[in-house]
Predict the 3D structure of the following.
Amino acid sequence: MTSDRLVPQLARKATLAERVEQELERLILESRLGPGDRLPSERELAAQFGVSRTVVREAVRALAAKQLVDVNVGRGTVVRAPSTETAGESMKLLLMMQSGATGIDKVSEVRHIIENEIAALAAVRRTPEDLETLDAILAEMRGHVDEPEVYIKSDVEFHAALARATQNELFVIVLDSLVEIMIEVRVLTLRVPGIARLALHY
């Protein structure tokens, strides 16, 4: 057991595991525990928090489920490096759970605002390589305007490339989380005759 206390001892309450989880998560988010750092052992954390090892184990499991830590036999529990994929998957799951008619309307509102801002920033920050990529995707869309599956795939790629052209990875994460729901919307939209060709003019 270390002599320096890393965390405050907690009073015994019904939600001890959640409180331990929250405290460890706070330490990670505040960078007091960084990527690659090993958490103290179960025994040490239990002593520092003033809880049982079972409570600590449950809290660590919750952190692992959030992909904030990796639990390795023999190496202990290690803080994970932040991942854009993890953030995107979490947002995607949340949105898919609300993908009813009302949820899709809400997502469409958010997408409209975000994509307008993405287009404005991309126009200022894009590189020559970004322009080449966008032009190539548009050409692909024009060549498959009567093939909905290919057209939709290219449309998704176009908006992803536009987000990357902002040079802000957070736009990429947010837009990616909307993709699956918006594919449903695109499928319905393309049932309107001539809508795909019309969209290519804007």
